[in-house]
Amino acid sequence: MKLYYLPGACPLASHITLEWIGKPYEAIKVGRDEIKQAEYLAKNPMGSVPVLEDGDFTLTQSAAILEYLAELNPESGLMPDNIRDRAEVRRWLGLCNSDIHRTFTNIFGAAALVSDEASQEELYKNSAIKLTHIFDIIEKQLEGNVWIAGARSIVDPYLYTLLRWAKAKDVNVGSKNLEAFYTRMEADPGVQAALTAQGLS
User: Fold this and answer.
1) Which of 16, 116, 131, 190 has minimal CB crowding within 10 Å?
2) Contact criterion met (CB below 8 Å) for 160 and 100
């Protein structure tokens, strides 16, 4: 199994998940120029990461990869057996993927979305405000919970990755439950292994 990644980007969530699963895999670093070349575009026409290769099967999109890894390795316990618990995991995974990640796109790609500097600053500011609101929803969910969906799941590495972005971009998430979650994840051996492999620790 191979995971293609850019250091610190969203594949970090899949990288951590692979560490938690504990089976052999290969993590392959790619460059921003490389993902726009024909060989890589044959794997992912979007020209983005992550890409997961499992034999002759190629999969893109973080949420799909995370669910695939969990369902391929049910003994990992990263996707619950109970249908309502699975729905809960997918609810928070959707929030991370469709709301938080998408809003960060406005921050990382502001220059590509609007041309003048004032509009870029406004887009950045408004996106940061929106992110603070969404993270506040998660802050409340984490009250009394170690893991966002109640038990450790594929959502937790994704949330941790997004919190790293928030810290890097000075998005206000200074809440006690999120900070405690971040600290716990930072101390996790699988997280540390993935960070070290990506040159982030």
Assistant:
1) 116
2) no
